Amino acid sequence: MKLFSYDNEESRKIVRTFDEIFWEINQGYAVDFLPWLLPAYQGHMKKLAQWSIQIRQFILSSIIEEHQQTINLSEEPRDFTDALLMHLEEDPNMNSQHIIFELEDFLGGHSAIGNLVMLSLAAVARNPDVAMRIRSEVDSTTGGTRGVSLFDKATMPYTEATILETLRTASSPIVPHVASQNTSIAGYTVEKGTVVFLNNYELNIGEQYWSNPQLFQPERFLSKEGNVTKPEYFIPFSTGKRMCIGQRLVQGFSFILLASIIQHFDVSADQNTEIRTYPACVAVPPDTFPLIFTPRSCSRTEV
Ligand code: HEM
C-alpha cells in the first residue's frame, strides 16, 4: 500500500472525510431502520454521497492509476492494490469499481480503529488503574526492551480485555438487514422484506447479561485463570454471513496501538476538559476531546 506523508494536504483531507462519514453513519438515524423515510433525509444522503465521491476520486487518481502505470503483471504483487489489479485481469466477474470499493473499505477502516482506540484512551484517562494494569502487562511481556507485537496477545489478556470492554461500553453499530424470504425465528413468523436486526445495545448493556453494566471493568472478560473469555451473546461484530470482515484487523491494531501508547505515555485529560463520549456510539466527533500524552514519568522498575 502506498504511504502518504503527514504533510500531504489531500490525504489529510480524505482522512478527515472518513472521520466525518464514520461519525455521521454512527448517529443511528430513523431512516436506517425505516427506509420509507428516505425522502425526508435527502440532504443527509446527498452529503454522504458527496463525501463518497471525493474519496473514490482520491483512491482512483492517487492510488489505482499510479499502480496501473507501474505494475508488472508477470511479477509478484508489491502490495494489496497490485493483488487486486491482478485479480481484475483474471476474474471476468470483477470490474474496477470492485477495487475502489475494496480499498475504500480498508482505508475507511482506519477511522473505525482510530475511533475505537480514542474511546479506549478515554477510558484509560478516566480510570488510571486500568492504565497501570496494561502497563504492568506490557512491561513484564517486553521486559522494557522492545515494542509490542501481536504475538504478545497471549501474555497480555488484560489489555485485550480492555479493548473488549471498550467495544461493550461504546456498543457497536446496529446494522439492519432485510429478510430475503419468508421464515421464522424462535417461533415468530418473519415475512420476506421485514427489517430485522440484532439489538447490540441491549446485548451490551442489559442488566440480565452483565453485572454493573455501567461500570468500565475489563476484568469481566477474564476467566478465573486470567484468560480472555467472552460470553456467546457478546457479538460486537455481529454474527452470520454478513459479520464484520474487519474484526481481526480491529482487534489486532487496537491492541498494538493501545499497548504501545501506554508503554510510552501517561494518558490524561486537562481537569477543565470534559471527556465527552456518547452512549451507544462507537464513534467520536471528528473534532473531539483533547488528551494529554506525557512521556512516561517513571522507569519500568518504579511502576
Ligand atoms: C470499531 C470497529 C468496528 C466495529 C464495531 C464493526 C462492526 C460491524 C458490524 C456490527 C457490522 C454489521 C454486520 C452485519 O451486517 O450484521 C459490520 C460490517 C462490516 N464491517 Fe465492520 N466494524 C468495525 C470495523 C471495521 C473495519 C476496520 C473494517 C474494514 C477494514 C470493517 C469492514 C466491514 C464490512 C466490509 C462490513 C460489511 C460486511 C458485509 O456486509 O458482508 N469494519 N461491522
UniProtKB/TrEMBL annotation:
Metal-binding as a keyword of this entry, yes or no, is: yes
**Which Pfam families does this entry report, sorted A to Z?**
p450 (PF00067)
List keywords of the entry alphabetically: Heme, Iron, Metal-binding, Monooxygenase, Oxidoreductase
Read off the PROSITE patterns from this record.
Answer: CYTOCHROME_P450
Q: Which prosthetic group or cofactor does it need?
A: heme
Q: Which family does it belong to?
A: Belongs to the cytochrome P450 family.
PANTHER family assigned to the protein according to its UniProt record, in alphabetical order: CYTOCHROME P450 307A1-RELATED (PTHR24303:SF31), HEME-BINDING MONOOXYGENASE FAMILY (PTHR24303)
Name of this chain's protein: Cytochrome P450
